[in-house]
Write a structure and sequence with these properties.
Blueprint: H1 24-38, E1 44-46, E2 49-50, H2 52-65, H3 67-70, E3 75-80, E4 84-89, E5 99-104, E6 124-125, E7 128-130, H4 138-152, E8 162-167, H5 178-187, E9 195-197, E10 202-203, E11 214-221, E12 223-232, E13 236-237, H6 246-259, H7 272-278, H8 281-286, H9 291-294, E14 297-305, E15 311-312, E16 315-324, H10 330-341, E17 346-354, H11 367-379, E18 386-391, E19 407-409, E20 414-415, H12 417-422, E21 429-431, H13 432-448
Parallel strand pairs: 5-8, 5-9, 9-19, 10-20, 11-18
Antiparallel strand pairs: 1-2, 3-4, 4-8, 6-7, 7-21, 10-11, 12-16, 12-17, 13-15, 14-16
Helix pairs in contact: 1-4, 4-13, 11-13
The structure holds ligand LSBFCXF6 and zinc ion (2 copies).
Length: 462
């Protein structure tokens, strides 16, 4: 948490800096490009149900909208896993370790109901572009390519190499996109200085006792367990019901899980330093958006039982989606869940699970974190708190653990609680101004990446 600069700036750059000012024509073109991206319905329904027609169309679209990116001699473009894209931008100084920018092409489904404008229309209303993907995550994808296109047409040549990885199945696990790109780079012996992905924002109005917005750069993300609970009982005629049925036993078990919060871990994990000063423990756990920051959560997401109205069902099943706080492990959460359920008739089947992700460095020597902080300070001078935090969901970045210890999740966009609800919800939108600022941020960030690794010590202050 600091206001001071952590990296040496322009004196270590060899090329003159390109100012992040864009013509009126360019500003119109960039917002129209985002609208066009929103109009392609790249929806992921499940790992096996992707809109492959839309994903292929999206590949054609970026070729059309960003011609310079695709026709620059020092940029290599590859399609991975049929629909994901990997760009290798070769810098002039191969002694500098490369980094990687991530974004994803796919979006979650968006039924029309409840939207002010159709979710795949990309319509502009009152200065906002509406549609699925405007915050998650076509804004990042388009802003990255747009910033690079604008730099290239001004003859920019990077010193430090970098990669851009655009996954096509993040919303359904990333195993055919990000995971394949990661394996490809590993096979090539690539090691990255750091990775920047989606996963956090400039948070505005989330903490009741903090009026000022603050930039939360997530240095970890929660683990997860998909746990299937199953109760098997003897079936029979519904006219003579037993005292307890599989449905009743299971319902009671999941209700106990829902009603018994996991322990409050406030003060543990990467948020510790910042939160102890920024936040109030009790107020945080009362709010459903901030509660996941302080504990492991348990969401009852699927329930299945019964075969006929007049048959006592043999089996009842439920799925609980846990998101594990960085201060806990899969094994600890399973033990807690067993103690809460406290019924041997309820069988536990772990469908899949992973521990919280390692905590990336955020000290003065951490290049990725310091570059983000430096760029936040210059593009958002009004934001004077930058704090490390935890991402409450999972992102494609978890597939790149083999390539780097520096994984940072941050979108340079203001987020209010209302806009948080629109992510995976209704009326997802971004203001034209916020999108332009995101392009500017990446335009600056890429140039900042060319600085030498010479962190300058700074004072910690709030
Ligand atoms: C200290 C102040 C606390 C304020 C808390 C406010 C939190 C607001 C931050 C909002 C960021 C939310 C962005 C989360 C990105 C998660 C992306 C996502 O939805 N991922 C899926 C991926 C997935 C994983 C596994 C299987 C299928 C899909 C997810 O479910 O996590
Ligand atoms: Zn996303
Ligand atoms: Zn998402």
């Amino acid at each position: 948490v600091s206001r001071s600069k952590g990296l040496r700036g322009t004196e270590s750059q060899r090329e003159p800096r390109i100012p992040s000012q864009f013509s009126q024509e360019q500003r119109i073109a960039m917002k129209e490009a985002l609208k066009g991206a929103i109009q392609i319905p790249t929806v992921s329904f499940s790992p096996k149900e992707l809109n492959t027609t839309a994903l292929a169309e999206f590949g054609e679209y970026i070729r059309k909208v960003f011609p310079t990116v695709f026709h620059t001699s020092f940029i290599q473009h590859e399609v991975v896993g049929n629909y994901s894209h990997l760009f290798t931008i070769k810098g002039s100084d191969l002694s500098m370790q490369p980094y990687m920018l991530l974004a994803h092409i796919d979006v979650v489904p968006a039924p029309d109901k409840g939207w002010d404008v159709p979710p795949f229309s990309g319509l502009e209303r009152d200065g906002f572009i509406y549609g699925r993907g405007t915050l998650d995550n076509k804004n990042s994808l388009m802003a990255i390519l747009q910033a690079l296109e604008l730099l290239l047409i001004r003859n920019y040549i990077p010193r430090r190499s970098f990669f851009i990885a655009l996954g096509h199945d993040e919303e359904v696990s990333g195993i055919n996109g990000a995971q394949k790109i990661s394996a490809l780079l590993q096979a090539r012996g690539v090691q990255l200085a750091f990775v920047v992905d989606e996963g956090s924002f400039i948070l505005d109005g989330f903490l009741p006792n903090l009026k000022k917005p603050f930039a939360m750069v997530s240095v970890s993300e929660k683990g997860a367990i998909n746990l299937m609970l199953q109760v098997n009982m003897t079936p029979g005629h519904s006219s003579a019901p037993p005292k307890e049925t599989s449905i009743g036993i299971l319902a009671a078990a999941v209700s106990r899980l829902e009603q018994t919060p996991m322990p409050n871990m406030f003060g543990s994990g990467p948020l510790r330093m910042a939160l102890e000063q920024l936040a109030n423990e009790v107020l945080m756990e009362r709010n459903y958006v901030t509660n996941p920051m302080v504990r492991t959560t348990a969401a009852l997401t699927m329930f299945n039982a019964g075969i006929k109205e007049n048959v006592i069902p043999p089996v009842a099943e439920a799925i609980i989606n846990f998101r594990i706080h960085p201060a806990q492990t899969v094994q600890e959460v399973l033990k807690l869940a067993k103690d809460i359920v406290a019924d041997d008739r309820v069988q536990f089947h772990v469908l899949d699970a992973f521990d919280p992700l390692p905590i990336s460095p955020s000290d003065d020597q951490a290049l990725g974190y310091q570059l983000l902080r430096q760029t936040i300070q210059s593009v958002f001078p009004e934001v004077n708190i930058v704090a490390p935090g935890t991402c409450i969901g999972n992102t494609d970045s978890r597939h790149y653990l083999n390539l780097t210890t520096g994984i940072y999740r941050f979108n340079p966009v203001y987020l209010q609680p209302q806009s948080f609800s629109s992510i995976h919800g209704i009326n997802e939108k971004i203001s034209v101004e916020a999108y332009e600022t995101q392009v500017k941020f990446i335009f600056e960030f890429i140039q900042n990446g060319d600085t030498d690794v010479e962190p300058v010590p700074h004072l910690h202050e709030l």
